[in-house]
Write a structure and sequence with these properties.
Length: 384
């Protein structure tokens, strides 16, 4: 991941890019890509395929498959790549709509749509409809709706007349070869989105940034689970460094399979150390901690220590000097290894901070425990 320290402060209202981009001029296809910092993109992508997100249905995907919308990483472009249907694009692309002989153009409300199941249900703060490499074949405008349905609804159930949909992004013009960002004001928990593009065209990627809100009844039934996991409502609130990769990676599902699959800091040239602060699913009793340095062989931290804090007492997690209780003393770490620590008599906590000494890579953090009765009784969307 590129260093973001020299980028301008994110804007609260994302800029709007409209109209087509210039034809591909050759060379770096991203050289004329239109984008800007967004205040919400520090939050995890709730639709991330790695979290279980999926595009479950679309009315048309003639030129390019709907599943491409949620592929991790930026869209790729090969100017020489063609198939029997035409240019092969890394995104979702529908055929050109037609009217009638008397009125050959699409009607004003004609559009294509795709249904997206969020990998992690939650509160959406911002959406990016990325039209990278779709320069003159992007939609004129887009709209996004959301719903919250229990269980695993089918596309037919989602499209039923009585399904309750809420507008997150009203129909809005977008630009070609651009990151079209939209801040979302609705603060409700959703499980599915419906993306509409008017009248047709191509969208490379869809990113849905927000706060995970898990099913507390399910977690309560499990008893002990990973309280830091993104899929269970855990979150990275802050970290000292994200030069090579984001600390959010450290709470993704499964083990890291590559060095860029975890959190890695730059090499320190001072006498300090790096750290990351996690907000747990809720107030919990902790039972065990795993620190995984998988795939970090010559760049694993030398040591780590762990502290916890209970924000329900009024303590401020952002204050690193007060309110924190040592949980694990400074402990030697091995490269490319899962380190497991059983906890006895650990205090209740809502936050965990891991300090690594002096720098390096942390692939995964797992904090196993059980929610307190107070945490299980809170309503979805309430704070810890």
């Amino acid at each position: 991941m590129r260093d973001t320290s020299d980028i301008a402060e994110p804007v609260d209202i994302p800029p709007q890019f409209t109209g087509p981009a210039r034809p591909y001029p050759g060379g770096d296809p991203y050289a004329d890509y239109r984008t800007a910092p967004f205040a919400f993109d520090v939050l995890p992508d709730l639709a991330d395929r790695r979290l279980g997100g999926a595009v479950t249905a679309a009315n048309d995907e003639f030129f390019a498959d709907r599943e491409n919308l949620l592929v991790p990483g930026p869209a790729r472009f090969d100017p020489e790549l063609f198939g029997h249907k035409g240019k092969i694009m890394d995104g979702w692309e529908t055929r050109r709509r037609r009217g009638t002989a008397a009125a050959p153009h699409p009607a004003p409300g004609d559009h294509d749509w795709a249904l997206v199941r969020l990998g992690v249900p939650g509160v959406v703060h911002g959406i990016v409809v990325d039209t990278a490499h779709f320069r003159g074949n992007h939609p004129e405008s887009v709209a996004v709706e959301a719903t919250a349905l229990p269980g695993t609804p089918s596309p037919e159930e989602l499209l039923a007349p009585d399904a309750p949909w809420t507008t997150l992004v009203p129909r809005t013009p977008v630009g070609g070869h651009a990151a079209n960002g939209f801040a979302v004001a609705v603060r409700e928990r959703f499980t599915h989105l419906r993306l509409a593009q008017y009248p047709d065209g191509g969208i490379a990627r869809l990113r849905v940034h927000g706060e995970p809100v898990p099913d507390l009844a399910w977690l309560g039934a499990l008893g002990t689970f990973d309280l830091a996991a993104l899929e269970n409502g855990g979150h990275v609130e802050d970290s000292s460094d994200r030069f090579f990769s984001s600390a959010l990676n450290s709470i993704h599902p499964g083990r890291s399979l590559r060095m860029d699959g975890g959190w890695e800091t730059r090499r320190r040239r001072d006498r300090g150390h790096d750290w990351v602060r996690y907000r747990l699913t809720g107030q919990a009793v902790l039972r065990a901690v795993e620190i995984d340095t998988g795939c970090y062989k010559g760049n694993a931290p030398g040591w780590a220590d762990v502290h916890v804090l209970d924000a329900t007492t009024g303590a401020d997690p952002a204050d690193r000097t007060t309110g924190w209780t040592p949980l694990l003393p400074r402990t030697r770490l091995q490269p490319d290894t899962v380190h497991r620590f059983l906890l006895d008599g650990a205090p209740t906590a809502t936050h965990v901070r891991v300090d690594i000494h002096p720098d390096g890579g942390l692939a995964r953090l797992r904090v196993h425990g059980s929610l307190t009765a107070e945490a299980l009784s809170r309503k979805p969307g309430d704070g810890s």
